Amino acid sequence: MRPILIIKPCAFIFSLIALSLPCRSSFAAQTADAEYEAVAEEYIKGYFAARPLEGTALGLHEYDGKITDYSRLALDAELSRLRRFDDRLTKFDPSKLSARQSLDLRILQAAVRKELFQMQDMSIFERNPMVYARAADVNVYVKRNFAPLEDRVRSLVAIESQIPNILIAGKTNLNDVLPKPYVELAIQIARGSSDFLKKNLVAAVTGLKDEQIRAAFQDTNRRAANALSDYAAWLERERLPKATHDFALGTEKFQRLLAETELVDLPPEKILEIGMRELKTEQTSFAEAAKKIDPDKSPAEIFKQIQSEHPTPESLLPDIGKNLEQIRKYVVGHHLVTIPSEVRARVKETPQYRRATSFASMDTPGPFERRATEAYYYVTPTESEWPEKQKEEWLTAFNYYNADIVSIHEVYPGHYVQFLRLNASPASKVEKIFGSYAFIEGWAHYCEKMMIDEGYSGAPTPGPTPKPSASPGTIATPKAKPSPETSSSSSVDDIKRAAKYRMAQADEAMLRLCRLCVSIKMHTQNMTVEEHDRR
Length: 535
Known about the structure:
Layout: H1 9-50, H2 52-57, H3 72-90, H4 99-121, H5 124-127, H6 130-133, H7 140-143, H8 149-160, H9 163-173, H10 180-204, H11 211-239, H12 251-261, H13 268-293, H14 299-307, H15 316-333, E1 346-349, E2 360-363, E3 376-379, H16 388-396, H17 400-410, H18 415-424, H19 429-433, H20 437-453, H21 484-524, H22 529-534
Parallel strand pairs: 1-3
Antiparallel strand pairs: 2-3
């Protein structure tokens, strides 16, 4: 006879509760996740409603033909919206969310606080005239064929009709006294934007057939370009003479910027210490590579020779394009990272309005773009009106070795591959829209060093060795072996070429580290622009 299992009422009740706990916990997490997702979606819709050009660039074409309202009323309304959402997001307990949504929450909170920091602490709409000079960035409408040309030009007409009003709002919003570096850059950007509208944009819509749309475009485009020219002249006349060097955030704001927008909780002085230590490491790497090239010359002498090996103004873009495919083949052939697309990045001149602040950059289709897959690697060329000495100085930065390092950073396997993989991933909408500047740039900097560590030295990737073959009845002649002298010479050349690439990689790393250290000193230790230039 089997023993009878006796369960006391209390024990039975507790057993039922225990069995139900995982279910209830899971249900609670699902409920919290659903509530968070609803708030996140509401925030995203409001975010793009206030920044429609960004929505179009990311591939959300319900925002086509719209542009940000920079009136004081609209800016105040957006600030109130950001504060409300910051408060609503703070009320979510990360421990009650699933692991994925808990991470999403942190990303979204950082994104909201970044916007708040820019509006409240940096006062970008009152202190930074570049905001308005850049407002006419309509390049996406002519570079990506996401809709018929007629439809895209209609959107351009709608947007350009608002540019004069935006610049009027800018003049109203900006303080009387502005930081001088901001004003000087804004003047260059506004003039570049005006030139872009007058020349590049007009040339890009030459295939337009509808005469009525063409006439509307010509009228609004002319007015927008003139408004930008007038804005540059106004800044030069009314704001530049009164401008000061008062742009520093100060230690407290700088630390909060890092903590709230990049989730970096280290104090600025600690980051400066790390930056200076890494700078010394790269300086050592630079010097050691120089010795492999010529131990009798200083690193500076050797690098000056490296810089002299550069393209002409006419061959700059073709040479970079040719080497870009070589770099891609190396990444694929050495199985360094899977590239999830066969679409090649097209090497193009940097648009005029971006040249004041860009040496090279990557323009990848947005994560929600379904039709237009065009990707552009922008390289800033020399200007025709520059004197020969200035052209030569500019091209030294595009020497063949540094140019490849920049291409690695921007395209393969840097930013372009990074965003291709993000776009193809199952990442959430929040993850695809709001990124970390430190993480995005960190990946590209890592790729520069990783590629050199993995042996990239500009040499073509060797293909498979062909099998020896012979005609029937003949004996295949063995391939002659290179002489020891030839092998030795080739080996020395390989070592020197690899050392040149290492020097170029270290040079780029030192440049970024100097920027990091100088930015901390300028914002927290009263370093002036003049002191920065001397260093």
